[in-house]
Amino acid sequence: xxxxxAVPSARLTRTQVLPGAAGARQSLKLMRSIVLxxxxxxxIMSTARQIINLAGIRTRDYxxxxxxxxxxxxxxxxxxRDPRGxxxxxTPDVLLHVGAGDCDDLAIxxxxxxxxxxxxxxxxxxxxxxxxxxxxxxxLTRIGTKWICADVTDGxxxxxxxxxxxxxxVVYL
Length: 173
Fold this sequence. Notes:
Elements: E1 12-15, H1 20-38, H2 42-54, H3 62-76, E2 78-79, E3 87-90, H4 92-98, E4 100-101, H5 103-116, E5 121-127, E6 136-143, E7 146-150, E8 167-172
Parallel strand pairs: 2-4
Antiparallel strand pairs: 1-3, 5-6, 5-8, 6-7
């Protein structure tokens, strides 16, 4: 069992997002800055390592590490939309304490866990069919030479599933 404690530095970032691609790029860059800040945080490092240890991964089985982190987030962190009209970005420690967040929060947590384990990550903003703007974000990780999608908000698909998109925008860490 993994025991989590709130960290005094925990915070939420509330921001006014620009419209269109500029807003999507702004969001992805903010998400990237959160990951870069928290990937060496003791709580995040400890939790990520506990997850792979509890999954029984003792070797350099990088796909298994990615899958274990993905599965743990889907099992332990619920999806919940932001308050209406507000775009919140939770730091990983806040999300672990709160236990629920939207697509950007879950993608931040997934990428931060992977970065603390040495996996390269990126974020992809997605404009889903029927939407007039970017309305979803997922994390990506590179295994070998291939970038892999990871939509931790989608309970019906595993690592590797990319949601349908009519437009995408990617920011690498």
